[in-house]
Amino acid sequence: MSTAQVHPAAGSPGPALLPPLPLGSMDALSPMHLVLDETGHVIHAGPTMQKLRPDSPMAGRRFLEIFEMSRPRAVSSMPALLASAGMKLHLRLRDEPRTPLKAVLVPLAGEGAAAPGALVNFSFGISILDAIQTYTLHSGDFAPTDLTIEMLYLIEAKTAAMEASRTLNLRLQGAKIAAEEQAYTDTLTGLKNRRAMDHILSRLVRTGQDFALMHLDLDWFKQVNDSHGHAAGDYVLQHVARLMVDETRGGDTVARIGGDEFVLLFHNLTRRARIEEIAARLIQRLEAPISFEGVTCRVSCSMGTTLSTFYDQPRAEQLLADADSALYASKKAGRAQHRFFIPEDPPQTP
Amino acid sequence: MHGLINRSIQCFLRDTYGVPLWLDVAAAADLPSNEFEAMLTYEDALTWRVLDAAAVALKKSRAMVLEDIGTYLVSHPNNEGLRRLLRFAGLSYEDFLHSLDDLPDRTRLAVSDLELPELELRQHSASRFSITCNAGMPGFGHVLVGILRAMADDYGALVILDYLGERHQVETIEVTLVEPAFAEGRAFELGAKTG
């Protein structure tokens, strides 16, 4: 075998005929190659090529028995193989592990009496990542000019750098959510604030959902503040906030939009009877005496509600103004009660 | 200084001496937050404050702390990825030494804004080398000594390392390769997941 020499074929396209290359030099230049004889049998396997099947020597076997060609197809004989010279060949090993490979074939001139054969040079191509898991490969298995090792290095380095970036992004994302949460929360009561309510209301309007908007104002809150101090007032606000959350569903919005003013958005709820019930419960529960550091505080609430179904094209400012005018009517009528806004020209419901 | 460098110092202190020590150092160095982010850049002064605070806390010289960081970078299990990247340099410790010239460029391929000092290897005989480290970052030479020592263990090579000092911001390290295959080195497979 060591006397065999690699001769590019005399008739092959390209410039002048190269002098013969001893096999040893091909092993160093391109350790993933096979030399085929004129019948298409392997007469020499480069050392890295042979590593793909460490227990069964490739030399002596027919090339097309070891490999299955996927591009070009229908290659089943040595003449057909030779006809693919110079093309990019896609093939895979026939037995497991069926690693895909890329290759290029050049015809070889016969030496003396020997008939011509072929030299096939291989690469893992993009399957290198699987190949290094499947086979025991070392950097010495690749030619020093081969960029495979550099590519593997780069993949690992990039993966590590991406991982670091990803960690940072996750942390920033968490910080952003926390900051937004804070920006949308009323710090005294933990309810949504005015900004959050505006945001949710405009989304409801934009998406055309049905909803009810209730404007709620505490009654006699000023007296609590004046006679028992701000600490008592703050406590009352926190207490009634909890009650309002209790009396509404998880998907509803309860927002504190001013000192003792609240807006409740009931998503997908426009049944008047149900809203009346909720309003009555709120008055009942809010009127229960609240104890704070030995004093008893009493408040109630007035409410005004408008429904998205009152409008052909609801607008947030209009809804807020209408709920506010209904609230004003409740206040004027003696407080501790609830009123619906009365549209001048209600749209006809079918 | 790049966040990766600052983060390495943080991880070294945390992994080697525990979280409380790191928090003490972060407080003593008056850091704005007690975490460095690997992918952000920080003022250089911050890095030196942390190193000086660490030296005080550990009762070691700054040079020793830096050398320990170098050793940690290669030998601690948390940094397996970095060790692997360095082992891509080649089959022997000598290959590794010759690859140092390329290290800053290789690093830039992965993290384009991470500037490492220029390294230059000179071979004086079959077994004697010297490495110059042109930092603009004095002290990096000590880190390099730690890395060179830990990588010698990794390859199973026996070496003698001498830090020759600094002149005009250029540090010089002398490496004597006593025995390239002194002990069984640690395994290195190209595929990261193979056992």
UniProtKB/TrEMBL annotation, chain A:
GO molecular function: catalytic activity
Domain GGDEF, residue spans: 209-343
Signal peptide feature range: none
One Pfam family linked to the record: GGDEF
Superkingdom to which the source organism belongs: Bacteria
Designated name of the protein: Diguanylate cyclase
Lineage: Bacteria, Pseudomonadati, Pseudomonadota, Alphaproteobacteria, Rhodobacterales
Automatic annotation (TrEMBL), chain B:
Domain Heme NO-binding residue range list: 2-156
Organism: Pseudooceanicola antarcticus
Gene Ontology molecular-function annotations: heme binding
UniProt protein name: Haem-NO-binding
Highest taxon above the source species: Bacteria
